[in-house]
Amino acid sequence: MKKITSIPDAWTEISDLFVALGDAHRQRILLSFEKNERLTILQVVEASQLSRTAVTHHLKVLERGGALKSEKVGREVYFQVNKDWMQQALHNVLQYVEEEI
Fold this sequence. Notes:
Strand content: 5-15%
Pfam family, one: HTH_24
Keywords: DNA-binding, Transcription, Transcription regulation
Domain HTH arsR-type: 4-101
Number of domains: 1
CATH architecture: Orthogonal Bundle
Shape: elongated
Number of strands: 3
Helix content: 55-70%
InterPro entries: ArsR-like_HTH (IPR011991), HTH_ArsR_DNA-bd_dom (IPR001845), HTH_MetalResp_TranReg (IPR051081), WH-like_DNA-bd_sf (IPR036388), WH_DNA-bd_sf (IPR036390)
Protein name: Helix-turn-helix domain-containing protein
């Protein structure tokens, strides 16, 4: 058994992604995006059964975890699935599993 004293920085970010994906509401929000689609908070609220406050919270968690990225255009904030980052993060986990376990 290896003695692990610290988590690598890359794994801290992966941890945030798994936290973001670990909630059914956030999973439904993420799955509501179509390929390359950008949605505002109000559009996500309309497609959800959650309040605007709850959706805003979940979007922030998804963004912090790297699952979503945002862009402010005028007064609106658009969210989009951060596919490239999620693929890289999951690839890193799979690579570790393949090489170390």
